[in-house]
Amino acid sequence: MDIVRPLPIPDGQPDALPASTISFDYDDLSLVPREVSTLAHRSDAKPAVELGGVNLDVPLIGSPMPDVCGLEMCDALAQSGAMGILHRFQSIDEQADDLRSARERTPAVGAAIGITGDYRDRFLRLLDAGCEIVCIDTANGAHVQMAEAVSWVRAQSSSVFLIAGNVASAEAFSWLEDHGADAIRVGIAGGSVCETRTETGVFVPTPYAVAEAVRVRRRTLIIGDSGVRTPSDMCKLLAIGADCVMVGSALAGTREAPGRVIVVDGKKFKIMRGAASFSVQQQVGIDDPEHVEGSETMVPYKGRAAGVVERYLAGLRSSMSYMDARTLDEYRRNVSFVRLR
User: Fold this and answer.
1) For position 192, which CATH number holds?
2) Active-site choice (196, 206, 220, 254)
3) Cα–Cα distance between 14 and 329 in angstroms, integer?
4) Is 196 a catalytic residue?
5) pTM of the model
6) Dihedral, CA atoms, 47, 51, 55, 59, nearest 10 degrees?
7) Residue 235 annotated to the active site
8) How many CB atoms are closer than 10 A to CB 240?
9) What residue numbers bound the domain in which 213 lies?
10) Catalytic residue, candidates 194, 206, 244, 254
């Protein structure tokens, strides 16, 4: 097995994995504890992060997917120390009302807009409803329409915290950072209901994409987003240098996820659809979608979202204790990697 040793990054940024023409995915890497731990208990590890003026106890964000993040999910995530982003696959009135309701209880909530169609009207309504964290949500963040949307949003409000993406390369990350994004979602085609990889040939493993972003970033936060299915996946992205992770399928089967529970052969499920799936495109007014890059599936029912967040937090804290790390900065400084294949 090859030891993958960190390389120094300018401007005090966390170490990243070395560049390679051969990428690596979650299962290609393992974390190695080389420090003697002084943590008496894993609860001594505090993986807090500040995002858009909000302090998150858990560096986890719920994806703005139609079957993941509605009002109930955002409330549940905020109560667990994480954050949700209200999806945009609903009317402007519904989304603005949900945001206003969520903001009455917590600042730890964001809202998504697109880069075409009604995104300007949607943003202005969300801003009026108290939106302080906005996610410009599209599959290909390295697009001139994204730059136009970022510039327009910035012209309306200089104080709103702006999340952009998705991107999967150092070049695209730097381009979006230069356009003024405060945080960038990194990862393309790794999601469980994303079919971009099979339909277009476009795919970069999220750990590798995050490592590329870490190598070039100057100020912008990195949100590792795509294929985070287990606490181990979250740990690896954070260790590489992501500031937060975004999850979808891990939350889609919970009680707070939009949609009703379905019972099949005595087992409980919930529906999960990709944002570019046939039915979601129909939901937003495209009667006969020309191209579909998202699938629709059933995911096992998991109970409360709090249980999922608690599992991810427990796994991360345990991993941090192995690395003698009380903070995420210490975690990244102390961690080493083994390349498994």
Assistant:
1) 3.20.20.70
2) 196
3) 8
4) yes
5) 0.87
6) -30
7) no
8) 28
9) 2-339
10) 194
